[in-house]
Amino acid sequence: MKPRRLLLRNRQSPGDIVMLTAAVRDLHAQHPGKFVTAVETTAMALWDHNPHALRWDRVADAGSWEAVECGYPLIARSNTGPWHFIHAFHHFLAERLAVRLEPGAFRGDVHLSPEEKAMPSAVEVATGRALPFWIVVSGGKRDFTAKWWDPARMQAVVDHFAGRILFVQTGEAGHHHPPLRGVLDLRGKTDTREFVRLMHHAQGVVCPVTFAMHLAAAVETRGPCEAYPRGMPRNRPCVVIAGGREPAQWEAYPHHQYIHTNGALRCCDNGGCWKARVVPLGDGDPKDESLCVDVAGTLPRCMDMISADDVIRRVEMYFRGGAVEFPTPV
Predict the structure, then answer these.
(1) Which structural domain, as residue segments, surrounds residue 64?
(2) What is the pTM of this model?
C-alpha cells in the first residue's frame, strides 16, 4: 500500500514548531513506511536537515497531498491533566490520522548538518576565541507581556557571574528585549538557523517560557572541543523563569531548573492562569481582555515573587553538581 502523503501546516510561534518536530519524528518511528510528510509552518529553518519531513517550499510535486492544519486542543486540559506540551501534537495527529502515537524522546527534533556543527560559534566569530557561554533572554513577544520578568533582576544575575560566565543576549528584532550590560549583544542579529547553531554551542540558557527553552532541550550538546574540553552533558542546562502563567507539568523539562509559583497564589492554584497581559495595550488585540488579576508594579505578582537570587541559585546548581564547569575567567 502506498504511504499517505501528508502536508502538515501550522502558523504558530517557533516554540510550537519545535513540538511539532517531535510529533513528526515519532510518527515515522512508530509507523515506518506508512507516511510521507511535508511541512508548511512558521520558522521553516527548524526543518532543515530533518530526515522525516520535506519542506513544502522545496517540494516540486504539489499534487495529491492530504493537508492537515495541525493544532493542539489538548491545551484545554493542561491545568488538570498529566500532560506536557510534547504530548500536544501527538494527541492531535493520533486522532486525525487514526493511529496510535506516543512521545518518544522528551525533546523536539531539530537537526544540524556536519558542516554546521563544524562551523565556529557566533561568539568565536565575534571575540576570536572559542569560549563557553550562556544564552540569556530578557523579555519576549510584545503581545504577551505577562511572560516578561524584570530586566533589572536579569541584570543582577549577569552581574553576579561577571568574569565567570559570558552571557550572550539574544532576542528577535521587534520584540521586547531590554539591553543588558556586560553581555555579548546579539539581539536581532540571528535568524532562526543561526540561533539553532548558537544553541548548539551554548553551555546553558536563562530565559522565560519561550522558544529558547524548547530549543535548549531539542538541540544536541557539544562533544569535547576547545570551549568544553570534557564535552557537555547530554542535556543542556536551562533556567526558566516561569511564574504562574503556565502549569509547570505542561512546560517543564526534567533536566531544566523551572522556577514556577503554581499553587502559591489563588490565581494559579489549579494550574496556570494563561493570562496574556499585565495592562491593556489598546492595539485591538483580544489579548487586551486577558489581563493579569494580581499585579505587583509592572509585573504579574507570580513573576515579581521570583528574585534575582532565586535565578542565581538555580544557575549555580549546575556548577555545584558538576554538570558543567566555570571556564577560565573571561
Answers:
(1) 4-97
(2) 0.95
